[in-house]
Amino acid sequence: MRKRPILRNGLTWALLCALSLSHCLLPAQGMTWGEFTLKDEKELGEKFNVLVRSRMPLVEDSEIKDYVTDIVNRMARNMPPQPFPFTVSVVQDNAVNAFACPGGYIFVYTGLLLAMRKESEVAGVIAHEMGHVTQRHIARRIENSQLVGILSVLGALAGAFLGGQGGPAAITGALAAGQAAMLGYSRADERESDQVGMSYLTRAGYSPQGMVGAFEILSRKQWLTGREIPSYLSTHPGLTERVQDMKARISLMTAGQQNRQEDNARFLRVQTLVRARYGDPQPAEIFFADRLQGPNRCMALMGRGILASRQNRVNDASSAFAEALACAPDEELIIREAGRFHYTKGDRNKGAALLQRAVSINKNDIFALFYHARSLADSNKNNEAVEYMKDVLRKVPEDSEVHDAMAHIYGKSGRMFLANLHMAYSALYANRENRIKQFMDKAGALAKTPEEKNALARFEKRYNDRKQFWK
pTM for the full model? Predict the structure, then answer.
């Protein structure tokens, strides 16, 4: 059996797949790979996913992540069978960006959710990225590539990923430096992804205008400055032409397809949450103030409350949440956010009551379950708290804060092996390398049963998979 080069140096190959709006880096001159199998593609995707999760902040709030996942699943149900399931992550970064890599991994930035005006536009960008995955563009280019000058770009990418100075935005800048030499290799792929993605979009029942609207937003000058979007798109010679091609294709569709009605209620709800929690504070404040007199007043009040809480303006936040609850007393998201605010800012009894109510309305809200479990532990209902926290971890197994809370609950119950194991997981997923061994050694000394030793072995495997990207 031949050796698979992608496994010799996980970091280099993961970096080869660092995408920015679908452009993928390929092997350096003199490196040829021959057949790039589905198994190779799966392994590459898994390594790249670990790399991203070890270097970028991800959003685990189920209200946001489940929304993006549902968009992907809606389109996946209407496409031919695929060799990989699609796996979605939301990156906390204000860049207007999304990318996909082999193995079906899709990453959507919070900045993209904020920049779009409707759900079909978000879906349009994602559909384009799914087109790159299903058409195996990256795999084919790896098999056939002989590029010049890529090593310098890889060096810039390595610095961006591992240096911690620029974060995701620095990746786009590094890519821009080498993009001119790569455009000739990507234009056909981009056009095919436009066409295939448009098909996925319309089959899923979305308006085809969504893809056009998304690309028009991406091409406007205000989005082509600073760190908002990769700068090479501002001079991409095919972007305007591609938009015209999309419009021509839409003109051939039926009137029913062209004029589909859109329901953006969930999109606006999620966008409010993203804007309040992760957006730039000053424009977010102006945005919510402008909507206090409109039909989205209740959500705007919630947004103001989240934003004020984020800035530690406790009185302003308390007033905003009180108004939001009066405006929409049965809205679970508002109840959840008000409960979280009161729980974290001092009035834990009021917060616990609101969180319990939120959970009773929506048992699938992982965020509400997490804070509800913490409130139960505060009342020494540790066994009940542990069961809720297990439900949370099944949904977000790599959330550092959840593992930390679980460790404290186990510690209060005297279950010290599990307390130290979850502290080790918390350090691992927070990328605090200096603390991992401390808790891993403590857990190792306490591991007595076969079950405990197996649990420790599973942790050590995850640690070894991730630590290669910290060097």
Answer: 0.84
